[in-house]
Amino acid sequence: MKKQLVSAVAALSLVAVSTASMAATLDDVKKKGFVQCGVSTGLPGFSNPDDKGNWKGLDVDVCRAVAAATLGDASKVKYIPLNAKERFTALQSGEVDMLSRNTTWTLTRDGSLGLNFAGINYYDGQGFMVSKELGVKSAKELDGAAVCIQAGTTTELNLADYFRELGMKYQPVVFDTSDQTVQGFEAGRCDVLTSDQSQLYALRIKLSKPDSAMVLPEVISKEPLGPVVRQGDDQWFNIVKWSMFALIAAEELGVTSANADQMKSSTNPNVQRLLGTEAGQGKNLGLDDTWAFNIVKQVGNYGEMFERNVGSESPLGISRGLNALWTKGGLQYAPPIR
Amino acid sequence: MANQSNGQGKAKTSFWNDPAVRSVVFQLLAIGAVVAFFLYIINNALSNMEARGITTGFAFLNDSAGFGILQTLVPFDETYSYGRTFIVGLLNTVLVSVLGIFLATILGFIIGIARLSKNWLIAKLASVYIEIFRNIPLLLQIFFWYFAVLRALPSPRDSFNFNDSVFFNVRGLYMPEPIAQDGFGAVWIALFAAIAIIIGVVRYEKKYQLRTGKTFPLFFPSLGLLIGLPLITYFIVGSPMYLEYPELKGFNFQNGMVVIPELIALLLALTIYTAAFIAEVVRSGIEAVPHGQSEAANALGLTNGQRLRLIIIPQAMRVIIPPLTNQYLNLTKNSSLATAIGYPDLVSVFAGTTLNQTGQAVEIIFMTMAVYLTLSLTTSALMNWYNKRIALIER
Amino acid sequence: MSEFKPLPDQPPPPNTVGLVGWMRAHLFTGPVNSVLTVIAALIIAWGIAWFVNWGLFNADFIGTTRDDCSGAGACWVFIYARFDQFIYGFFPEAEIWRINLMFFIFAACIISMMIEKTPKKGWIALFTLVGFPIISYYLLNGGLFGLEVVETHKWGGLTLTLVIAVVGIVASLPIGILLALGRRSEMPIIRSISIVYIEFWRGVPLITVLFMASVMLPLFMSAGAETDKLMRALIGVTMFQSAYMAEVVRGGLQAIPKGQTEAAQALGLSYWKTMFLIVLPQALKLMIPGIVNTFIALFKDTSLVLIIGLFDLLAIVQSALNDPNWLGFSVEGYIFVAFMFWIFCFSMSRYSQALERKLNTSHR
Question: Taking the model in full, what pTM does it have?
Answer without folding.
Answer: 0.81
